[in-house]
Amino acid sequence: MLFCKKWTVVFNGTLTVANQIQCISTCCKRMGFKMSDIAIYQNMDPKYKQNILDRKKRKLQKLTKVAVQKIPITDFQVNKEWKSPERKRTKDPLSEEIETSQLLLEKDWSRYTKNVRHLEDEKLENFLAQQAKALNELYLESPALHEAALSSELTFSTFKCEGPVQTLPISNYLAPLGGYVSCSPPNADE
Amino acid sequence: MSSSALCRCVFMKLFEKSSGSLKTHRVLSNSFVRHFRNRPTAGIGRTYGLTGVESSRHLKRKKEVKNALLQENISCYDTLKFKITGYDIVLVESFTKIVHHLLQQLNYKIDELYAEPTFEQHIKNMKTSLTANVDDLPTVYSLSYHTRVIKITDLPTHAKPVLIHMMMYFVPQSVTFEISPFVEADEEKRHKKRVALQKAMEELKMIQKA
Q1: How many structural domains are present in chain A?
Q2: Which ipTM was obtained for this model?
Q3: Which of A187, B22, B64, B175 is most buried, by CB atoms within 10 Å?
Q4: B121 with A101: Cβ contact below 8 A
Q5: Contacts of A143 (CB under 8 A, 6+ apart)
Q6: Are A111 and B27 an interchain contact pair (Cβ–Cβ within 8 Å)?
């Protein structure tokens, strides 16, 4: 007797179904057919089914009791091999002149960064002061507009900003063919 | 040329470039050598205005505009998240530090500052292989993608443009930042996938249907 079997074939990530004819005889016990899971449970004794249901529910309860674990962050994990004392470099002693010049340079740098920080703080303060002044003036003009200005953006979509680039993009550049594959973080599944 | 001298050359050039606005600084114009306990101070420490005339200059800097109107009705966002992402961990960390300090300076309620798990991105090249399946191609680089999230509650609406302005001023190269409302799905990203639990739930559903 001839039977027709449907095989699902996976090729390059796409599912294609191809019909193939396979010769099977009805004499053998195992024919290679399997009933779907739903069909098994439909044709079962109701008592037996209830037992299975209870067991599954108890298992679910046990699993839900366990607290959710967080994925560990591996950013600052250092390889143990790198910590061996053999890899440590020796420091040669520097002359006094070089040391003093280094220290003076550090002090100059700290002075410079302090000034930069003051400028940035001033910038922020000026911005806030200007904003407050503008809102004041708006209130004097019309309180309704003042309220609208403050409460306008309560529902907003995401704001995204990309940082600057070190080098400008090359014009008429053909990137090589390939792709990006992002893996899941390590220890992401329990 | 020694490395320290090189550093100094580079630094002084930078200093000269930026000191266009700093030339009015008092120390540069009328400073004198002042020692402390018979040791040189290298210019650190105050050398001017020690009689008390200096105080007025410092008072000018604090421009606290007390706006009573603003304090009456402040509309706030529920919970926002500032997401900072990039491939260079040093730059990402330094930028998060800057943003954190900014928010602390302005006294806004920071709920949590955490890192989302880093994952690797493999860049694959199709040099000689003819397969179209990306997984089979050879990897040229594997870059690790880092994310840091700052969760803020009750941020007033008038503060958002200020923060965006300052963040855009500070943002370094190759780092992107995103401001969006905080959702439950963001919290679930940090948790491990419970495979066994999901399977059990699916099985239960199937049995109950049948």
Answers
A1: 2
A2: 0.71
A3: B175
A4: no
A5: none
A6: yes
**Is residue B198 within 8 angstroms of chain A, CB to CB?**
no
B42 contacts in chain A (CB < 8 Å): 103-104, 107
Mean pLDDT of chain A: 83
Shortest distance between the Cα of A169 and any Cα of chain B, in A, equals 13
> Quick one: how far is CA B173 from the chain centroid?
12
Higher pLDDT, A10 or B195: B195
The C-alpha of A78 sits at a distance from chain B's nearest C-alpha, in angstroms, of 14
How many Cβ pairs closer than 8 A exist between chain A and B?
Answer: 218
Closest chain B C-alpha to A85 CA, distance in angstroms? 25
Domain assignment present for A180: no
CATH fold, domain B80-193, is Alpha-Beta Plaits (3.30.70)
Exposed e or buried b per residue across A98-123, where buried means at least 16 C-beta atoms within 10 angstroms of its C-beta: eeebbeebeebeebbeebeeeeeeee
State both tokens at A148.
């609208």
Locus of tokens 């904003």: A131
pLDDT at residue A105 in the model: 94
Residues A104 and A143 occupy one common structural domain: yes
Question: Residue A163 and residue B69: Cβ atoms within 8 Å?
Answer: no
Residue B66 neighbours by CB distance under 10 Å: 7
B-chain residue closest to A44, CA distance: B210
Domain endpoint, select from A22, A45, A66: A66
Delimiting residues of CATH 3.30.70.600 domain(s) in chain B:
80-193
Instruction: Evaluate whether A41 touches B207 at the Cβ level (below 8 Å).
Output: yes
Element (H, E) at A130: helix A96-141
Amino acid at B14: L
Q: Sort strands B39-40 and B139-156 into parallel, antiparallel or unpaired.
A: unpaired
Residues from chain A contacting residue B145 (CB–CB below 8 Å): 182
- The set of residues, in sequence order, having a beta carbon less than 8 Å from that of B154 and lying 6+ positions away, is B76, B77, B78, B108, B109
Q: What type of residue sits at position B29?
A: S
